[in-house]
Amino acid sequence: MRRIFIAFVIWGGILPLLAQETVTVQPRIMVVPYVKQGEDIRTVLEADVNKRIVMAKIREAFDTRGFTTVDFIARLKALSTTSGLSMDNQADLKSMIVQQSGADVYVDAEMDVLLSSSGNSVKVIVTAYDVSTGNSLSNKIGDSGKFYTDDIGRLASKAIESCADEFLNTMQTKFNDIVQNGRSVSVTIGFDAASALSMSSEIGNDGLTLADEIELWMSENAYKNNYHVQGTTDKQMIFDDVRIPLKDKNGNNYNINKFGLEFLKFARKHGLKIQRDISNNSLVVTIK
Question: What are phi and psi of 248, to 5 degrees?
Fold first, then answer.
């Protein structure tokens, strides 16, 4: 009798390649100081060492958890040197630094130092925002508890450590949703008072109405065809939840400005003149 031996060989290096690993994309974070209306950021930071300590401690807490952070103070100094911004011309300095930082998320950090005969303490309020849309991703309050110490840095560390894990977990969960499902923006499309067009006007070669053409464009350009029409009238079309991707097909950052540019190309293709107004996560298009 002829015996047939079948050998099953498992090569240890091939099995890991067959399983797809889900990689968590972590955001780049910039910690920025909370300042009141009319306050100069540079003056506030230079005059209050405790604020600088708290910002450093918050960054340190993020760094130790594997997040990539961007140094706000370093960017502030660099921008102040190269731009020549004066004390009277810096209303948008904070937002300018955030937008040019390359960060995905910025964390507003507010600190309250409480000194008393029964012990000193530090409270921190941290709120994370999506840089592109301004949407809140996470917010927590940390409290150091009272201690007989003048070491504000130590108290700041205790305050941020008391809330860092929960704060970062919430932020990461919401950021993961952005990666998977896109950022949520709103789009309102209307008409100039002098415009002869309306949503029922036929455009293009297919005899479709402007409203139909806009929705077809939206279905092709919204991330994963994810959008919602709040309402349509003859003079206005409102999309209250349109998802746009975090990155474009080349891996570059994508934002509502680029989404508005794509709509401009669509409008020009159909011979339409438009005006675009963008504020945070809202795009308002006016057809002339």
Answer: -85, -175
Q: State CA 165 to chain mean position distance.
A: 20
User: Which residues sit opposite 86 in a β-bridge?
Assistant: none
d(CA 120, CA 40): 27
Residue tagged 């099995």 (tokens): 15
State residue 40 phi and psi, 5-degree precision.
-90, 125
* Residues recorded for the chain: 288
Cα separation, 72 vs 76, in Å, equals 6
The DSSP output letter for 145 is -
| Whole-number Å distance between alpha carbons of 50 and 129 | 23
* Cα gap 73→56, rounded to integer Å: 10
Integer Cα distance of 9 and 6 in angstroms: 10
Residue 6 has pLDDT above 60, yes or no: no
* DSSP-assigned beta bridge partners for residue 242: 185, 227
> Is the CB of residue 45 less than 8 Å from the CB of residue 72?
no
> CB burial class (10 A; 0-12, 13-18, 19+) of residue 21?
exposed
Q: What angle do CA 176, 183, 27 make, to 5 degrees?
A: 40
Nearest to 197 by CA among 210, 182, 208, 215: 210
pLDDT on residue 89: 46
CA dihedral 36, 40, 41, 45 (to 10 degrees): -100
Whole-angstrom distance, CA of residue 211 vs CA of residue 189: 10
pLDDT tens digits along 163-203? 999 999 999 999 999 999 999 999 999 999 999 999 999 99
Q: What is the DSSP string of 225-274?
A: G-EEEEEE-SSEEEEEEEEE-SB-TTS-B--HHHHHHHHHHHHHHTT--E
